[in-house]
Specification:
Length: about 260
């Protein structure tokens, strides 16, 4: 099921924990510096973001993000415990452990951000933990469909958000990997189509790219803010977006999908 929205929407996610896709890992000092810069950048424009952490309850970044304003914390899942190879039982255990520890420490959770592909028949385990949003990984989308500007229900009220823009860009010629022009185009297309665009930032990779990559993000954020200031674009967290979509469809009947993990 897809949904046409009342206006263009933008969601932003930032993955903060180093991923296995990088040949090098950004060190702690680089990530600390990046976190401060991104919080300042988003704060200047009063833009909320979804910050994905491997284990939010024990992350050193948690308090700074919570103190910065209307941001959202999310669980970041990678191939070590998400996916067909990791298995259903391991996924259920690791997700449940992270959710339980975070909520026990007072963290509100709505979103699972993925670095890999979530099997469609594992979606019930996400719903069982009370999560309503799943951001697709950078690989093949969960729904096996091409990129869309409209959010999709994966199964049973779980909303899936494909990545529309990934930073840093992949260009070896443009400063910071490029991506500014493409991002502006996709944002304006979402406004025209009353759709959703999702900007995903790989924090460790951005930190390794340095100032030029951060400036690319800054230009994209400034473009989004101009559109928002003119009433053309709304910027929300992934969890807030999923909650809005769920409210639109809350009158539709549903059936229980919960079944054992093993």
């Amino acid at each position: 099921m897809s949904t046409v929205l009342p206006r263009g929407m933008l969601t932003i996610s930032v993955d903060l924990d180093p991923g296995s896709t990088n040949s090098r890992s950004a060190d702690h000092a680089l990530l600390e510096s990046l976190l401060a810069r991104l919080l300042e950048l988003l704060g200047q424009h009063d833009l909320p973001a979804t910050w994905a952490l491997a284990d939010p309850a024990v992350s050193a970044a948690r308090k700074r993000i919570e103190q910065a304003g209307s941001h959202e914390l999310a669980i970041l899942g990678d191939a070590s415990w998400v996916g067909r190879e990791a298995g259903r039982a391991r996924f259920a255990h690791e997700l449940g452990r992270r959710v339980s520890r975070a909520r026990g420490d007072g963290i509100e959770l709505s979103t699972l951000a993925l670095r890999t592909v979530l099997p469609i028949d594992h979606c019930d385990l996400v719903v069982k933990e009370g999560l309503v949003a799943a951001r697709h990984g950078s690989g093949k989308p969960i729904s096996d469909a091409p990129r869309r500007l409209h959010p999709q229900t994966l199964r049973f009220g779980l909303w899936g958000f494909p990545i529309s823009i990934a930073l840093p860009g992949s260009s070896r010629l443009l400063p910071g990997g490029g991506g500014t022009r493409a991002a502006r185009f996709v944002i304006d297309e979402a406004i025209s189509e009353r759709g959703l665009v999702h900007l995903a930032v790989d924090g460790p990779a951005l930190a390794l790219r340095g100032n030029s990559a951060v400036r690319v993000l800054q230009r994209i954020v400034e473009h989004a803010q101009r559109r928002r200031r003119h009433g053309l674009l709304e910027v929300v967290t992934l969890g807030a977006m999923a909650e809005q979509l769920s409210q639109l469809h809350c009158g539709q009947p549903s059936r229980s999908i919960l079944r054992p993990a093993a």
